Amino acid sequence: MLLLWLLLLLPLLAMLWQQRPSWLILLRHQVAWRVLAWEAACQQRKLEQSTLRVGQSQQQALTWCLKRAQSPYCLPRGITDMSTFRNQLPLTKTSQVQQEESKEELLPPASPQYHGEASLQATLLGLVTLNKAYPEVLTPGSSACVTPPSPWPGSVPWLRHALGRVSPLGAKDPRTLLLEALMFPGLRALEARTAVELLDVFVGLEADGKELAEAIASGKLGTPLPSRAAELQEALEQGPRGVMALNLWPEQPQGSYLLPPGVPFIELLPFKEGTQEEATSTLLLTDVQREEEYELVLTDHAGLTRCRLGDVVQVVGAYNQCPVVRFTRRLGQTLSVRGEVTDENTFSAALAQAVGQWPGAKLLDYACVESGILDSCDGSAPHYEVFMELRGLRNLSEENRDKLDHCLQEVSPHYKSLRRRGSVGPVKVHLVGPGSFRVLREALAAYPSSSFPPEMPRVLRLSHLAQLLRKRVIS
After folding, report:
1. Which residues of 398-436 are buried (b: 16+ CB within 10 A; e: fewer)?
2. In the chain, is it the N or the C terminus that has fewer CB atoms within a 10 Å radius of its CB?
3. Can you tell me whether residue 394 is helix, strand or coil?
């Protein structure tokens, strides 16, 4: 009851103290963190209990999904048995789910009860973990909202005032929000609605940093701040540093993520690289083996589909009885013009090797297309085409362009064999202008069956998306 009263009073106190002296701002911040730490400790105990009793927790999650199922393809009413569910409901792929959803009317909004609790737990534990690893990030006035309706942390809205977010709220364009945020000398963290939008912000900051610094120096939004502009320019020259994802172990160099036993209901499909046969039997969280790879299968109550996401994870550890995983690849992101299979990992490794041989170049983003999608064979052998956005280089010599094809032959013997026989032509490399991939993501989000945030494919299968990048080629 005491916690409830504090939660009710904090928004009022935040409004009353908004224009108060700095000592009151610090007091508000300390009170907020004490309440947050107390509630986070409760959520930590819940996490410990659920991860120690994984089988029971997963059964509760599945029962919750089945009772609140909104899909017309539901199991017979009253069935909550896990074996019956897995035997009678077939596995589906993301593309199949999107096609079915595009034919159906929009479903009513999901009940926030279970998801709200999970969101609260993730928000609180995430904030506490981030504060332990990087305490300077969440000091008063150190974070800023840089996308127009950013709900984070949505489940505890009073925090956005109590923790002293520096940028003003309101429906403004991201560039203006970013410019206003950069004027604050204590800025340490940028907040966005989705990771994809945050990536666009950082890409834009790298591309337009000099222009933004000049706007701050000249006082475009008010008082000229030449010293702050100099600080910004110096930071940009040092290059990007820091954490781009949040998990329970943000200090680790490679992201590791806990798979919780709640909603959505999680299954794992064994994955073996290079095998033609697909596994048909899934495993539960307690059945997986360390170092093995699995494809994620999720079930939610909104669609009640056992959906194969196409994301492959490797089990790298355990948290109580729950697996800790690392994302390794995405299925379906493969290139094939002569029956070969060049997956995302193979191509990205070759591309990173090639970019390392281009003086001054830094890869910002890229996408691949099979030549048949663009009808660009022109009598030559089928080949791959790659569109990339670079920083530090606006033109490539033919010698440097050829390095990507040589690197790809080094990492893929099958591709090398096809190239030597002339069955596959050399990779064609195109540089696109700044902001091209932001435009591509906007086009993906506008697609009728697209998810939100839209998945960024490395291999484009639709001609109009490939043509969108082709129109933005600068070299």
Report:
1. eebbebbbbbbbebbeebbebbeeeebbbbbbbbbebeb
2. N
3. coil
pLDDT of 288: 95
Range of the domain at 14: 2-48+115-238
211 and 350 belong to one structural domain: no
pLDDT at 103: 44
How many beta carbons lie within 10 A of that of residue 28, not counting itself? 22
The two tokens of residue 355 are 């970019």
User: In the chain, how many domains are there?
Assistant: 2
Q: Could you tell me the pTM of the whole model?
A: 0.70
Q: Which of 203, 221, 238 is the last residue of a domain?
A: 238
H helix intervals, 104-173: 112-133, 159-162
**Residues 27 and 170 placed together within one structural domain of the fold:** yes
Asked which of 238, 270, 301 is the last residue of a domain, the reply is 238
User: Is 120 a residue whose pLDDT tops 80?
Assistant: no
Question: What residues does 363 pair with on adjacent strands?
Answer: 390
The answer to whether position 416 is within a domain reads yes
CA 335 to chain centroid: 23
Beta-carbon contacts of residue 46 (< 8 Å; ≥ 6 apart): 121
Whether 244 has a pLDDT exceeding 50, the answer reads no
**Averaged pLDDT, 200-225:** 84
Where residue 143 falls among pLDDT bands split at 50, 70, 90? confident
Nearest CA to 261 among 67, 59, 113?
59
Strand pairing report for 189-191 and 257-258: unpaired
Q: Are residues 350 and 465 in the same domain?
A: yes
